[in-house]
């Protein structure tokens, strides 16, 4: 948006009327993103462009701006020289912990703005992937809660699933808010989720939460008290959990007035059938009489240790979702005889999740199949994943690496990150000589291989952007 304003302003009076129309300038994005890889994104603006905007454009439109997006290097010039009397929404993109902490503690202009005007705040946490949470993140979160007296909506996480998680100190007296109604956040543990729902946010009606891993809890936090004010709940957790029945179901049953529920889960069960529509209704939905929207993406992985289990067929799964609460649902079942595992994936349609198996997804992290393809269906039409940035094939057989990396079978124009076993990569690329996989590999800017290896001489010619 800011690039458009910069290029069109003061060309003609007619262009100025269009550019400065309140409809277009009330939500102003002062960033421009450059993506090197899924985890390496730079939000910035050219210094010369920024100077002209701050000197010639912002003074003419600042009184009409309601929502503003800034990054750390331009924020001081954007906020310190101009007043924004109508500003109520602020997004801080790609700020390091140190810069963000300094702004919250020492920047009087930012503190005044947050204290007196901002009701909607979005924080994009800038961290490298897979780093442990820092104490600074918790301090920053607590500072925001204590400083923003008018805050209604808070998003405190990384965009595009570049997840950063944190664990909270439940004993802190500042870790609370009486005004917050909506919260989007990534956390480390299920206990963190329970902390957020223990009453310290007594007006919270909408919670969107991504839990790094759902495992055992301390057992000291109440998971029985009803949550009558919660209207919208979204729960995402990509790692497998064994505690769906013991932790997740009791939590959801507390949400007696819920109107919208979104679940994105991978569940492991032993000696139990797949999760289907009948179980979801009996275990969860029957306790939510006001529910009017339910979207889900559920993987059930079953270790068949008891040969007496009678597993549902895919037709049985489809029939179980006939209730009106579900709408359209798709499902499929996979059986891995060598590992003695049964898997079922069921999901609501239209597909609304950022990971998965469809063309609008940005990353694929669920291709887990070590068995070879029974028939390499190379005669099928070309598959296109137009927006896919991140592909994880470490849990897949080499046949799937070949299927995805050969451009004749799969078109991946935006792919930047690839996780894969070295052996599969060598086979698919024919020891980095296969021209059929060269195009896709030449665009990669990040390649993750867990096991140690010595790159051959032609390796970096095959991956020139690494």
TrEMBL record:
Domain of life: Eukaryota
Protein name per Swiss-Prot or TrEMBL: Uncharacterized protein
Organism: Rotaria sordida
């Amino acid at each position: 948006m800011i690039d458009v304003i910069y290029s069109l302003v003061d060309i003609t009076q007619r262009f100025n009327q269009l550019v400065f129309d309140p409809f277009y300038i009330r939500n102003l994005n002062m960033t421009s993103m450059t993506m090197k890889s899924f985890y390496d994104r730079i939000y910035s603006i050219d210094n010369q462009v920024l100077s002209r905007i701050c000197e010639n454009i912002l003074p003419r439109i600042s009184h009409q701006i309601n929502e503003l997006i800034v990054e750390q290097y331009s924020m001081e010039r954007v906020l310190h020289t101009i007043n924004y009397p109508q500003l109520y929404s602020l997004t801080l993109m790609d700020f390091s912990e140190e810069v963000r902490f300094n702004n919250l503690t020492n920047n009087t202009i930012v503190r005044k703005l947050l204290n007196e005007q901002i009701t909607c705040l979005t924080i994009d946490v800038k961290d490298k992937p897979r780093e442990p949470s820092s104490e600074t993140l918790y301090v920053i979160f607590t500072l925001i809660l204590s400083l923003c007296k008018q805050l209604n909506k808070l998003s405190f996480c990384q965009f595009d699933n570049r997840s950063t998680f944190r664990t909270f100190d439940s004993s802190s007296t500042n870790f609370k808010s009486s005004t917050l109604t909506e919260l989007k956040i990534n956390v480390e543990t299920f206990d963190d989720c329970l902390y957020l729902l223990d009453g310290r946010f007594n007006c919270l009606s909408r919670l969107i939460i991504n839990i790094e891993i759902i495992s055992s809890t301390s057992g000291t936090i109440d998971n029985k008290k009803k949550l009558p004010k919660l209207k919208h709940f979204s729960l995402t957790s990509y790692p497998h959990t064994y505690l769906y029945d013991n932790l997740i179901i009791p939590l959801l049953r507390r949400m007696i007035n819920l109107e919208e529920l979104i679940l994105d889960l991978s569940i492991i069960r032993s000696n139990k059938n797949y999760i289907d529509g009948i179980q979801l209704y009996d275990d969860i939905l029957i306790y939510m009489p006001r529910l009017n929207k339910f979207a889900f993406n559920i993987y059930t992985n079953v270790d068949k240790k008891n040969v007496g289990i009678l597993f549902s067929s895919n037709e049985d799964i489809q029939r179980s979702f006939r209730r009106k609460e579900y709408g359209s649902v798709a499902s499929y079942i996979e059986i891995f005889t060598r590992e003695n595992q049964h898997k079922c994936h069921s999901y609501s349609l239209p597909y609304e999740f950022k990971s998965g198996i469809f063309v609008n997804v940005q990353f694929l992290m669920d291709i887990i199949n070590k068995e070879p393809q029974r028939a390499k269906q190379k005669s099928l039409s070309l598959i296109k994943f137009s927006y896919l940035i991140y592909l994880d094939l470490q849990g897949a057989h080499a046949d799937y690496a070949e299927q995805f990396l050969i451009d004749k079978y799969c078109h991946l124009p935006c792919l930047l990150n690839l996780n894969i076993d070295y052996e599969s990569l060598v086979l698919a690329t024919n020891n980095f000589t296969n021209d059929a996989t060269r195009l896709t590999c030449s665009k990669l800017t990040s390649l993750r291989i867990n096991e140690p290896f010595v790159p051959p001489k032609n390796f970096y010619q095959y991956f020139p952007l690494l």
